[in-house]
């Protein structure tokens, strides 16, 4: 009987306060869309960092079938030349400056490329022969790049020596700033949503003072009186969170994975599958936000 009464009051409240319910849906939708956008930004930053992480080092690119400088006019790098480069890395003149190094074959470079650019149309058009094999060197002191460059730049079989650190430091700085901005905006929007939901639910409850008074007189508990209002907020916020999830999905699918991926083939973009983890988080935030905001607002503003 009590459950039936609560559901009856809930249905009545949703019908009578349709305008307020719609306002909660819209507030939650806008707020959680910002939160979802911040989450997408975090995933995109992680994607970029994951791709460029191995680049924050000195990379010695080896010659391929297509010569790009005088070191490569004799053709692609030979096994003897690779062995010579390895010997140089272990020599007394170079080893003190090298923390560790790895060798990436053309096949490994292709695999890595396809993983990072899975959403790009160019992923299927690149073959292993188009990508150079390379020695990736992590230095004990990044400032000693010039020593590595002087040692390997003119070595037979070496196409180029690139210090990715100098290129990527500004990019990572911008990413960090974007991260903090996204977190700040998301936190501000959640706070605004909580205040607006609390105000809306409180006004809805105050508009039904007579009903609440009657419920008090017949001995209804505080929980029974407040629960329909809390459920109103939770249902409305859940609908708003679902709509926000849809907006985030559209953003990732049509804007990032579609427009940006096609227009910027050199940058790895997240796919819709990467964003799947955001949707349940948005719905959970909406439910918890509405539940807590409604309960606190009713407890402080209604004498029940």
Briefly characterize the structure.
It is built from 9 helices and 4 strands. It is of the alpha+beta class and 304 residues long.
Describe the fold and architecture.
By secondary structure, the protein is an alpha+beta fold. It has two domains: 2-51 and 169-301, no CATH class; 54-165, Alpha-Beta Plaits, CATH 3.30.70. It is built from nine helices and four strands. The chain has a four-stranded antiparallel beta sheet. The radius of gyration is 30 Å and the shape is elongated. The mean pLDDT is 77. It is a multi-pass membrane protein.
The low-confidence runs, each spanning 5 or more residues with pLDDT under 50, are none
**Approximate helicity band:** 55-70%
What separation lies between the terminal Cα atoms? Answer: 21 Å
Radius of gyration: 30 Å
Give the strand tally: 4
* Broad shape: elongated
Number of domains: 2
* Fraction in beta strands: 5-15%
How many strands, what sense, and barrel or not for the largest sheet?
A: 4 strands, antiparallel
What are the secondary-structure elements, in order, as H or E? HHEHEHEHEHHHH
Keywords:
304 residues; Alpha-Beta Plaits; 2 domains; four-stranded antiparallel β-sheet; 9 helices; 4 strands; elongated; FtsX_actino; FtsX; cell division
């Amino acid at each position: 009987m009590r459950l039936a009464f609560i559901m009856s009051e809930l249905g009545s409240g949703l019908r009578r306060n349709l305008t307020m319910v719609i306002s909660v849906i819209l507030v939650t939708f806008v707020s959680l869309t910002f939160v979802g956008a911040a989450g997408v930004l975090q995933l995109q930053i992680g994607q970029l960092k994951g791709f460029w992480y191995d680049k924050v080092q000195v990379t010695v690119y080896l010659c391929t079938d297509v010569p790009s400088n005088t070191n490569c006019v004799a053709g692609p790098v030979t096994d003897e030349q690779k062995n010579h480069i390895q010997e140089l890395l272990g020599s007394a003149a170079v080893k003190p400056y090298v923390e560790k190094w790895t060798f990436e074959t053309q096949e490994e470079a292709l695999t890595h490329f396809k993983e990072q650019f899975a959403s790009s149309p160019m992923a299927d058009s690149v073959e292993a022969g188009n990508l150079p094999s390379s020695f990736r060197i992590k230095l004990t002191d990044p400032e000693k790049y010039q020593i590595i460059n002087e040692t390997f730049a003119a070595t037979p079989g070496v196409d180029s020596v690139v210090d990715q650190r100098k290129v990527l430091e500004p990019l990572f700085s911008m990413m960090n700033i974007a991260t903090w901005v996204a977190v700040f905006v998301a936190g501000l929007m959640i706070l605004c949503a909580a205040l607006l939901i609390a105000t809306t639910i409180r006004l809805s409850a105050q508009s039904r003072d007579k009903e609440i008074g009657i419920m008090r007189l017949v001995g209804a508990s505080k929980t029974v009186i407040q629960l329909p209002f809390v459920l109103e907020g939770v249902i409305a916020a859940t609908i708003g969170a679902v709509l926000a999830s849809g907006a985030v999905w559209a953003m990732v699918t049509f804007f990032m994975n579609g427009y940006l991926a096609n227009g910027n083939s050199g940058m790895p973009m997240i796919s819709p599958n990467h964003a799947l983890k955001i949707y349940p988080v948005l719905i959970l935030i909406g439910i918890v936000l509405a539940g807590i905001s409604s309960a606190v607002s009713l407890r402080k503003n209604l004498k029940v």
